[in-house]
Amino acid sequence: xxxxxxxxxxxxxxxxxxxxxxxxxxxxxxxxxxxxxxxxxxxxxxxxxxxxxxxxxxxxxxxxxxxxxxxxxxxxxxxxxxxxxxxxxxxxxxxxxxxxxxxxxxxxxxxxxxxxxxxxxxxxxxxxxxxxxxxxxxxxxxxxxxxxxxxxxxxxxxxxxxxxxxxxxxxxxxxxxxxxxxxxxxxxxxxxxxxxxxxxxxxxxxxxxxxxxxxxxxxxxxxxxxxxxxxxxxxxxxxxxxxxxxxxxxxxxxxxxxxxxxxxxxxxxxxxxxxxxxxxxxxxxxxxxxxxxxxxxxxxxxxxxxxxxxxxxxxxxxxxxxxxxxxxxxxxxxxxxxxxxxxxxxxxxxxxxxxxxxxxxxxxxxxxxxxxxxxxxxxxxxxxxxxxxxxxxxxxxxxxxxxxxx
Length: 406
Hints:
Elements: H1 2-11, H2 13-21, H3 31-43, H4 45-50, H5 54-84, H6 105-116, H7 119-123, H8 132-163, H9 171-199, H10 213-238, H11 247-276, H12 305-309, H13 311-336, H14 343-368, H15 373-396
Helix pairs in contact: 1-2, 5-8, 5-10, 5-15, 8-9, 9-10, 10-11, 10-15, 11-13, 11-15, 13-14, 14-15
């Protein structure tokens, strides 16, 4: 049967062409109609999008942004493992468009020699016995992380250039897309600026060479900001907020926004913990060794430097912020019990409660087990999931529907 059909198409191709481009009333969702739409989109994207309904346009743009969010989350996860395995300084140069990986033994030896000339190799005893295969692992970790960033740039910048001139996009959405593009470009340069700080030799320092914790926190903060901004916009397009002016719901919305802000601050505190390896200072819980308040909490002058540069203070602050965040999440959950919430908002409240406890459990386990890579990576990714749930809950309790597509 199939062979006869193929022979007929080969003899009379105009019949197949007519079937492909002629609208079908009986089977609107067939593979033929789908193929016709794809061909039309490829040939005349502007005309194709103009013919779609407002809701369809909003969903398409929203799903594109949601896909970009997935890429950012993946890159953040890979970046966390890159930091935890101390792979970030394995590549000692940076090119805007990237470069291919070494292909033969000679090229790998050149890369290895470059790394051996870096401060990290000179001062870090653990690397003195590194083999070529071990070097390849950390090199590919950094190389993969950088190329994932370039994939994000391509997936954000190219569609933005194609869409930003379309008249059916509102001015608000165009500004948001321009902001996303600026963040992506700035993130690439911030990444190299961060790595560069770990390649600078400081003979007067007795500490292990590492990237600046200030630049690491800025790099992670920009990634989280990009992710959350794109996620919120995608929700505005795919699942517009239902109008609700009830005082109790709006109070809950303010609390969820506060939780999102506190979760972001806690995540940035975690970046300082990672940047200073502060998770290895006190590996006991709930006390710091045998004290509730460690004796070396304030040792630097001026005192404010302890918040960012004293490993004990950095870990202490991260613990306080984490516990405060959990208390706030529990408070929101208790406040939501007597309220009649929309279905998604009720589910998100319960999910936020569960994720809050899980995140604290991951943090304590990471501390007690002396920061194993896989557990620390899960703890970092948990912070992004927690932020996502809080942002989504804040969106679901929104008071107005934004008109982003005309």
